[in-house]
Amino acid sequence: MTTAPRTIRQLTDTVINQIAAGEVIERPASVVKELVENALDAGSTRIEVATAGGGLSLIRVTDNGGGMPPEELPLAVSRHCTSKLTDDIHDIRSLGFRGEALPSIGSVARLSLRSRPEGADSAAEISVEGGRVSAVKPVAANRGTTVEVRDLFFATPARLKFMKSERAETAAITEVVKRMALAFPQVRFTLTGTDRNTLELPAVPADGEGLLRRIAQVMGRDFAENTLPIEAERDGVSLSGHASIPSFSRGNAMLQYFYVNGRPVRDKLLTGAIRGAYMDALPRDRHAVAALFITLDPALVDVNVHPAKADVRFRDPGLVRGLIVGAIRHALEISGMRASTSGADAMLAAFQRPEQRAEGHAAPQRYTPPPRPAQHPSGGWSAATSPTRPLEMSTASGFAEPGQAAFDVGAALSADARAGEVEAAPELMRTPLGAARAQVHENYIVAQTEDSLVIVDQHAAHERLVYEALKEALHARPLPAQMLLLPEIVDLPEEDADRLAAHAAFLARFGLGLERFGPGAIAVRETPSMLGKVDVPQLVRDLADEIAENDTADTLKERIDHIAATMACHGSVRSGRRLRAEEMNALLRQMEATPGSGTCNHGRPTYIELKLTDIERLFGRR
């Protein structure tokens, strides 16, 4: 690196725009995001996106918004020119506001902007190629704006080396459009191109039912069927949306969508709040599915902290996190008994033949008796040709010998404990989990409701009941603490010590007694008895890190709850234990009265419900 003195000079506009493009235009999906935001800010109700080559060859965004007059087109492709921002940078009520997107795109690609405002007789077009702006010319176009971007990064070919495969870039564009579509259900989105299958998201009403329909369009019907409505408000911050029931989860957090004043964001605070809300319901390697919308005064959130406006900073992050955690936990408590429909679907699929699964769980055909075969007195009787055989194997819908092979366990089945020898009380049949009818394999309780069949994993269910009882007993009063013979002195940065001291009263409720010990140190005098031998310095540093990031001290509570979960696992009804009818019904009633009993402590479902209509369809009765 040379050390020769250099003269300070003003950069050219082209270089300035290319530097801005490096911050704003990371990949083709970034271009789509900026252009769709502009279309939404223009009041569009229909947005069409077309791509080719993963967005590197072509991106075209067409809308029916307000449009721009010819005299404003040169300003639209100039830096820091915008119609969306007043003199108050803290009062941002639009998706875009910096006025950098179009000039940044034009500096690294071939861009054309065609627009026709409402009431105008014709449209106008301006082009930008590698930073060089052409003159405005009249063209024919419908009302609205069309922005076409070709040969992205042709002016900075080094950027092309960092692009992913065409398939990956195409998927990223699809994800951007889906995220924007969730926030604006009243807008019709169409995504087409030579590099993809067409995605059409029709407009729906901007109300609760309409949002659920848009969620089904974007996130799938399964999520819409396994979701809880979320509604809460506190100190001027309102929260709405949907979150999944605990038994419906994913292996990553990609299906967690967050919106702040309509703006899609990715924020560690919000992701951590989801994790905290499901702390008792999901294992650490499973993630809830959610679409949450936060609305608050623009002055209470800073959206100008990231070049791509993907991150935000709340003035009171603790308030937002507490609102999310409290709202989701409240929804889980009042949701009652909910079993994931995916469990029942998987069970129904297990009864079907492979070709039927490939057809999307097609309903079995109704049984039609085959024609009576010709009689052959000399040939003797044959089971295959007998007219009284029970079912024609060619028309069976999944209960043929190949379909039954998966259930051939070889050895004899375990004895059943039967609860259905007497007629079940009608009042039990009307309860969510119904009346116990049998215990099979000494682990699964089969219950019957008025319109369904319920199968309960007795060990998983009782484990959740014991765990909830233990937690209630533990947190109802301060936990016992063991005093250390000699206080443990932990050296920390001054700010971490201040944060821990501020949370000392909360930590004391869980048996951790600490106090300041001079500048930059904490003295720990007591630790929770339940934890036994504790690595005190590591525990204190973990708590300090959590408080710094989330302004909470849940690490200690998580450790105590983990011990309670272990105790519940070993203290619950074991698999292989015979239960009487009274015990099975008592377990079902306890499940109905316990929040979160749809999953065990490890996130597994405790029961599966099969509707009578599904069973009838399985047997060809529907």
Write the layout of secondary structure elements.
Blueprint: H1 13-24, H2 28-41, E1 46-52, E2 58-63, H3 73-76, H4 101-108, E3 110-116, E4 123-129, E5 132-133, E6 137-139, E7 144-150, H5 166-183, E8 188-193, E9 199-201, H6 208-219, H7 221-225, E10 227-234, E11 237-244, E12 249-250, E13 256-260, E14 263-265, H8 268-277, E15 287-288, E16 290-295, E17 301-302, E18 313-314, H9 317-334, H10 341-350, H11 354-358, H12 401-404, E19 417-418, H13 426-429, E20 435-440, E21 444-448, E22 452-457, H14 458-475, E23 481-491, H15 494-502, H16 504-509, E24 513-516, E25 521-528, H17 536-550, H18 554-571, H19 581-593, E26 607-611, H20 612-618
Parallel strand pairs: 1-8, 13-16
Antiparallel strand pairs: 1-2, 2-7, 3-4, 3-7, 4-5, 4-6, 8-9, 10-11, 11-16, 12-15, 13-14, 17-18, 19-20, 20-21, 21-22, 22-26, 23-25, 24-25
Helix pairs in contact: 1-4, 2-5, 5-6, 8-9, 14-18, 14-19, 15-17
Protein model, in words:
- With 622 residues, the protein is of the alpha+beta class.
- Strands 1, 2, 3, 4, 5, 6, 7, 8 and 9 form a 9-stranded mixed β-sheet that branches.
- Helix 8 (268-277) packs parallel to helix 9 (317-334).
- Residues 359-370, 372-379 and 386-415 have low confidence and may be disordered.
Helix amount: 25-40%
General shape: globular
What is the number of helices?
Answer: 20
Kindly provide the radius of gyration, computed on alpha-carbon positions and rounded to a whole number of angstroms.
Answer: 31 Å
Q: DSSP strand (E) fraction?
A: 15-25%
* Oligomeric state, counting identical vs distinct chains: single chain
Total E-strand runs? 26
Average pLDDT score: 81
Q: Roughly how many Å apart are the termini?
A: 78 Å
Derived structural class: alpha+beta
Sequence stretches where pLDDT stays below 50 over 5 or more residues: 359-370, 372-379, 386-415
Main sheet properties: 9 strands, mixed
